[in-house]
Amino acid sequence: MVLVGKLSTELGIKASSSKFYNLFASQLNDVQNLCENIHHTKLHQGEDWHGSDSVKHWTYVIDGKVHTCKESIEEVDEQNKKITYKLFGGDIDEHYKIFKFILEIFDKNDGSAVVKWSVEYEKINEDIHPPNGYIEYLNKCTREIDAYLVKA
Q1: 74: which of 16, 84, 127, 150 fits an S-S bond (Cβ 3.0–4.6 Å)?
Q2: What is the C-alpha separation between 141 and 109, in angstroms, rounded?
C-alpha cells in the first residue's frame, strides 16, 4: 500500500565531476545526441533550456517502449553539483502524481567522481510498479555520457 518511493543508483565516472555537471547545467540539449535511448527533445516553453521557466519535451525508450514527458528544472545547487528535475505529462501522469530525477555528482578523495541519480515518485495507485526501468535508463545514459566526455 506504499505509494511514495525513492530509487537511487550510483556510478563511478572517468570524466571530471565538473564536466559531467556542466553538461546538465548548461548543455542539456546535447544529451539527446549522446544517449541512444533518447530519441528527441525540444524546448516546449521558455527561451532557454536552463531557465527556471523552461519546459522541455522528451521522447525516450524505457524497457523497449517509447515514452514521452515534459520536464522542468525544479532546483539547482551549483555548489553541491545537484540538479532536481520535475517530470510530468505524457506517460508520467498515467502512473505517477509526483516524479522527479535528482542528479548529484560527488568528488572522491582519490580524484575520481561518482554520479548519483535518484528517482522520487508518488504512484497514482498501489497497482503501479516502482519505476525500476528508469534506473536502468539513467545508468545507460550516464555510461554513454561519461564515455563521450572522456573523449571530448
Answers
A1: 84
A2: 25
